[in-house]
Each structure stands twice: as structure tokens, then as C-alpha cells.
Amino acid sequence: EDQVTQSPEALRLQEGESSSLNCSYTVSGLRGLFWYRQDPGKGPEFLFTLYSAGEEKEKERLKATLTKKESFLHITAPKPEDSATYLCAVQAGGGGNKLTFGTGTQLKVEL
Amino acid sequence: DGGITQSPKYLFRKEGQNVTLSCEQNLNHDAMYWYRQDPGQGLRLIYYSQIVNDFQKGDIAEGYSVSREKKESFPLTVTSAQKNPTAFYLCASSMSAKDYEQYFGPGTRLTVT
To answer: Which single residue of A93, B65, B84, B106 has CA 20 to 30 Å from B17?
Structure first.
């Protein structure tokens, strides 16, 4: 069974304090790993797709990386507007288009 | 603007009533999905449709039904058989069944009392 574990569950940072969120996964044949951002009461917003170990993608203060067992979402010099829940999901080979989601990391960035 | 719309944003129903949640997309995507989100749990797949007039059960389809008569629309009915219907429901779409990236609508919060 495919599994996705995100850590920490919650993270509080000061503005400008860089950190990383972790997504560990167990899947039979990874087709893709996805990062989403979700604000309270809203639908997830797509951020990145990573397909193979060693791949990296960046968007503004966010950088996603992928290894064979986990992915990291690095946040550099965060701002209060980066506060949200960050979701990780995986798609397995042979699983059709089904995504398996983690429970998310709730990030709070304070002034 | 292209996107996915869900209505209503909030929905209240009495126990024992069926209720239908709307999902419309103008992205010209072939595939559409319904997820359920509960506190402390990851999103769970209810149903998905890869093409018009075709749909498959996800992990938690019991107590739900769907239809896909038009490419743009994928309504979800929460029936009285669903034991714990109160949740946040999210609709998503992807360009095709082979396209991995799914884009989500704003969600409908359903409360059943």
C-alpha cells in the first residue's frame, strides 16, 4: 500500500528563518511526487511535480527536491504570506491517476 | 479565466437527505476527480472520471454517486447511505488520464446534522 508521511505536522518560523519540510514516501514505482499549498478553507494550489531522484524545482522562495525515499520543500527567507498548509502527494505506477496524499505540514511565519 | 468552480461554498443538510455538489471546469480537461478532506487526514479519493460517460470508484466510494454527462461537469451526490458525510469536498481535474498534475477547485464544506 502506498504511504506518504509528512513532517513536522506544524512548524512556526520567524520571518527570514529558512527551513525545510519533509515528505517520506513508500510507493511501488513512483510516477510523480507533487507539492501543493493549501490556505484555510480553500482548495490546494499546485506548486511542483518531481519525477525522478535528483530532480529539483524552484519557485520564488520555495525549492523542492527528490530522493528515492523522500522529498524536501525548502523555504528560504520565508514571509508571513508563505503561511499555509503544504501537502505532498505521490502517484504510483499502475495506479491510474490516483494520488496518495500526506496529512500536510502547517506552516506559520511570524513577523 | 479558466478554472474549476464548485458550488455552493457551504452546504447544510439534515440527516437522511441526499445532496448534490456541483463541479464545473472550463479548462477543457478530460479527467475529473472528487476528494474528501477531513481534519488530520490526507485527501481521499471518492470517484474519478477519465472521459465523458465513464467513471470509476476511488478508495471511499460507498454512500456516494457521480455522473459525467458533459466534459465540463462532474456532480457528486452524497446519499443518505454515507455514514459520516460532514466534510470538506474537493473537485479536481487534469488534462488527461495520463496527465499527472491535478488542479483543484475551491471546495464545498458540507455539514449534515
So the answer is: B106
- Please choose, from the candidates B7, B15, B3, the residue with its C-alpha nearest in 3D space to the C-alpha of residue B89: B7
Of residues B42, B94, B105, nearest to A103 (C-beta): B42
Cell of A64: 523542492
Residue type, A86: Y
C-alpha cell, B77:
451526490
Q: Is the peptide bond before A40 cis (omega within 30 degrees of 0)?
A: no
Give the C-alpha separation, A40 to A18, whole Å.
Answer: 22
**pLDDT tens sequence across A80-99:** 999 999 999 999 876 567 88
| pLDDT tens string B70-83 | 999 999 999 999 99
In angstroms, the CA B92 to CA B23 distance is 9
**B104 part of contact set with chain A, CB < 8 Å:** yes
